[in-house]
Amino acid sequence: EVQLVESGGGLVQPGGSLELSCAASGFTFSIYGMSWVRQAPGKGLESVSGVNGGNGRATYADSVKGRFTIYRDNPKSTLYLQMNNLKPEDAGVYYCAKASEPNWDAHYDYRGQGTQVAVSS
User: Fold this and answer.
1) Per-position DSSP letters for 54-65, written without gaps between them
2) Which of 12, 53, 62, 16 is nearest to 35 (CA)?
């Protein structure tokens, strides 16, 4: 059974940092693309960043480039998102998603339960 369990969310002041983690199980983690998507209050899902399986190439939304870093620890089957210089517009529920193939931007077939990020002074 595929499981994706996010952690690391919380309340942070603007300019602060958080690191999200996603512990994966039930599949060969290193093969598949993985991504972080977020949903701000009252808005739809937005892809934040993704990293390919295999070649490990990472991609970022323009809104987070230079501030967020996605990385994966394949031996630990864990995906991370280091978020720096957080802005109020970064607030929302962050989900870890598993792609159906090595390219992270392929259709995703599993998503975690999410972790809440709040950015406020």
Assistant:
1) SS--EEE-TTTT
2) 53
